[in-house]
Amino acid sequence: MECEVEPRVRVSHEIVAGTDSVRFDLVLSNLEKEPVDIEWAQPCIRVGRFTGLGQGDYIRRCFIFTESGLETLDRTERSEEALYRGGQVYVPWNVDRKDVNPRPLSPEKLANGLIGCFSADESLLLATAWDQTQELFQGVITCVHSDFRIGGLEPGQTKKVIGKVYLLENDPEALLERYRQDFPDGSFGAN
């Protein structure tokens, strides 16, 4: 698929479905003669039906990986104050905290770029990651995000970002192994 983002950034999407994952290869090209301030993007995955929970409690089935290991979002250190209330933003160490979603910022230290959730019957897990992690975000509409970093585009410049969505048996160690294979640089690389 191809689309255009204003002012004139062409995005080519190659989407490949596997048996238990979907890979997204995006190629972003600046068609302008001026730099384009396109810093990051927010793919949203709605997980209410998958978790069987609603806006008020779905975060107890959602998770990230911190320095302490797998943490459900209801047990992470959270903040409430921000320009816009609701949700929670988890920021990698190498991303400027002033350049993220203006929602409450958690002080948690991320171990990787994965965010996911467990199914209502706890037999499956759904997770997502990109090779250029801008932030992980617990959304405001029963959703999770692994938002990817673009970092702007110079005139005529092209950049590629790669993402994955996993649907696996509930085995966090198997998820981590797949993630390490797919993103050997830890998904915190810089363009």
Secondary-structure element string: EEEEEHEEEEEEEEH
Domain unit count: 1
Q: Tell me the strand percentage band.
A: 35-45%
SS-derived structural category: mainly beta
Task: Summarize the amount of helix as a percent range.
Answer: under 10%
- Strand order within the widest beta sheet: 1-2-3-13-10-9-6-7
- Rg from Cα: 16 Å
The gross shape turns out to be globular
Which regions have little confidence, pLDDT < 50, spanning 5+ residues? none
Mean pLDDT across residues: 92
User: Quick one: how many beta strands?
Assistant: 13
The number of helical runs is: 2
Q: CA-to-CA gap between the ends?
A: 23 Å
Q: Please outline the major beta sheet.
A: 8 strands, antiparallel
Fold and architecture overview:
The protein has 191 residues and is mainly beta. It has one domain (2-182). Helices cover 8% and strands 42% of the residues. The chain contains two helices and 13 strands. The protein has helices at residues 48-51, 172-182, and strands at 2-5, 9-17, 21-30, 40-41, 44-46, 62-66, 69-72, 88-90, 110-118, 124-130, 133-138, 143-149, 158-169. It has an eight-stranded antiparallel β-sheet, with helices on one face. Strand 9 (110-118) and strand 10 form a beta hairpin. The longest helix is centred in the last third of the chain and has 11 residues, at 172-182. It starts with a strand and ends in a 9-residue tail after the last helix. The model has no long low-confidence stretch (mean pLDDT 92).
